[in-house]
Amino acid sequence: MVWLSIGLGLIMLVAANAHLLYVAVFSQPDCVAHLQHGEGNGTNSFSAATSSCSSKPTTTAKAR
User: Fold this and answer.
1) What is the rounded distance in angstroms from the CA atom of residue 23 to the CA atom of residue 31?
2) Which of 11, 22, 51, 54 is found 20 to 30 A from 29 (Cα to Cα)?
3) How far apart are CA 47 and CA 54, in angstroms?
4) Distances from the Cα of 16 to the Cαs of 3, 10, 26, 60, in angstroms?
């Protein structure tokens, strides 16, 4: 009975990790509404560093 419980526990562990790996590789989360860079009043409002959902291309400043 102990060995059966250990075996089932290991099977569940492998299955759970396989599911997490599948979700991480094959899922694409929907875009969420957030402040664009430069929007907001500067206090308690954060924006995404880069957004993969924005329709306009972002430009990056070159280092001098």
Assistant:
1) 17
2) 11
3) 12
4) 20, 10, 15, 40
pLDDT of residue 4: 97
Per the structure block, which two tokens stand in for 15? 């299955």
Q: What pLDDT, in 10s, does the model give residues 7-61? A: 999 999 999 999 999 998 888 777 766 666 666 665 666 666 666 665 555 455 5
SS (H, E, C) 1-61: CHHHHHHHHHHHHHHHHHHHHHHHHHCCCCCCCCECCCCCCCCCCCECCCCCCCCCCCCCC
| Farthest-apart Cα atoms in the chain, separation | 69
